[in-house]
From TrEMBL:
Domain VOC: start-end pairs: 1-123
Descriptive protein name: Glyoxalase
Top-level taxon: Bacteria
Gene3D superfamilies: 3.30.720.110, 3.30.720.120
Amino acid sequence: MHITGSAISLNVTDVRASAEWVQEHLGFTVAMEADGFCSLSHPDAGFNLIYLRTGLPTFKPESQAGHATGLLVALTVADVDAEYARLREEGVTVVTPVETEPWGERYFQMSDPNGVVYQLVQWV
């Protein structure tokens, strides 16, 4: 198999709110958009982040058409403490402050206006 791209698609109530949030706070840019759909990219991420409006009739499989729950978008960064300070200064909603796991994962979690959880990680 030769993979030519990758994406994460999340159902949200307000596509614009999540798209604007990741642009403002995480540096993603819009790759393409339409009514109820926005695909964003970041030069360092290696995947597109896609938001789909909950309830779109084109979403398949229909059994998965609800709001994304139990998921988080994890991004590895070089300095998690600096990002934590910057994002707190920007007023993001932190849901888990900086913690370090015994296996060397230092991270914190934040949420966007739709409640999508993003985790920034540094391996120490």
